[in-house]
């Protein structure tokens, strides 16, 4: 689990994307889209994303945001 947190965190901080996001042509932005995603937000996303079964919330909200997006005030959009 530690490896996943480090992978997601470093990829998003250094390259602003992960390999999967790059292949799908999507990116992470701030909820209000005006301010950049901070290192703290990237860390929160990475940490929460690694909790097993937590993204089931994606099925039950109209914006299809994961819990990690709600906690970090981020959203994933197409490039």
UniProtKB/TrEMBL annotation:
Keywords: Cell membrane, Membrane, Transmembrane, Transmembrane helix. Residues 2-72 form the RDD domain. The keyword Cell membrane applies. The keyword Flavoprotein does not apply. It is a multi-pass membrane protein. It is found in: Cell membrane. This is RDD family protein. It comes from Flavobacterium humidisoli.
């Amino acid at each position: 689990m530690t490896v996943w947190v480090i992978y997601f965190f470093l990829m998003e901080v250094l390259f602003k994307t992960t390999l999967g996001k790059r292949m799908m042509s999507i990116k992470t932005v701030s909820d209000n889209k005006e301010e950049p995603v901070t290192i703290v937000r990237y860390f929160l996303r990475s940490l929460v994303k690694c909790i097993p079964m937590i993204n089931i919330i994606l099925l039950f909200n109209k914006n299809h945001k994961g819990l990690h997006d709600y906690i970090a005030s981020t959203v994933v959009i197409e490039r």
